Amino acid sequence: MSDSDSSEGEMGGMFVEPAEFNPPPPEPTFEIFTRAAKDKQPQEMKLRLVGSHPLWAHHLWNAAKVFANWMDDHPQYTVGKNVLEIGAGAALPSFVAAVNGANKVVVTDYPDNDLIANIQFNADHIIPELTKNGTVIVQGYLWGSNTRPLLAHLNPATNNNTDTTTSTPASAAPKELFDTLILSDLLFNHSQHRSMLKTCKETLKPGTGRAFVFFTHHRPWLADADNKFFEIAAAPVIDPPEGDESSDDERDLGGFGFKVEKVLEEKMTPMFLEDPGSEEVRGTVHGYILSLE
């Protein structure tokens, strides 16, 4: 019998995908961040980045680097504070907050196994002792969903509700809230501005708490859409009349009542030199602080 008379027949291999048709995902990469403050330890942090991801977690963004250095120069926002980061990516700012003496650091990103496992890997390798002793906690979190699982880390007695799909009732909100919130390079997610702000509103301590929003206009022609975040944040809260159903239309929802203050503008090399638009705009990191009365 010839080779062509094998059990597969002459067309036996026709439907076998060639190796290059469905290549394996890219391997993780590493990037070393060197802190600008030479008196800080560790002086370097080696971060693993996922090989590729649709949520752009495979980059260490300029905003994260700038904010990490800014925190080193402003320790009052981390020493002894309870810190929450949303959309953390590689989680550089969270790790800097932790080594600078934060009381508790809850590091979150979209509940995707690869993303969360990568953050946990970085935590275990960069700050192993702070991970082991419970100072740093890594978990998945969907912006705008129930914040009770986040707040339960500050209020252990309330950790009896694991449903992350519903809002946190104001009447049932835990007593302890976060002192410091970190949002690093998230504003390009225009459809998620309200979800981010909802999470901030429910988790930030009024009066003394601060939410830090550092970002770049990566698409200069959409800068107005990026900045819409701050318009919504600062607009007054509009409660619907009693008995009326709330609307999802931004014109009817009002805002979140945050005080907004710009604190930084720093020039960097653009993340993607080949992208269109002004290099100056694409290379500038902006820093804002949100607070609640």
Automatic annotation (TrEMBL):
Entry keywords, A to Z: Cytoplasm, Methyltransferase, S-adenosyl-L-methionine, Transferase
Its EC number(s): 2.1.1.-
Binding site for S-adenosyl-L-methionine: W61, G87, A88, G89, D109, W143, S184
Subcellular location, principal: cytoplasm
Broad enzyme group: transferase
Family according to the record: Belongs to the class I-like SAM-binding methyltransferase superfamily. EFM7 family.
Protein known as: Protein N-terminal and lysine N-methyltransferase EFM7
Species of provenance: Linnemannia gamsii
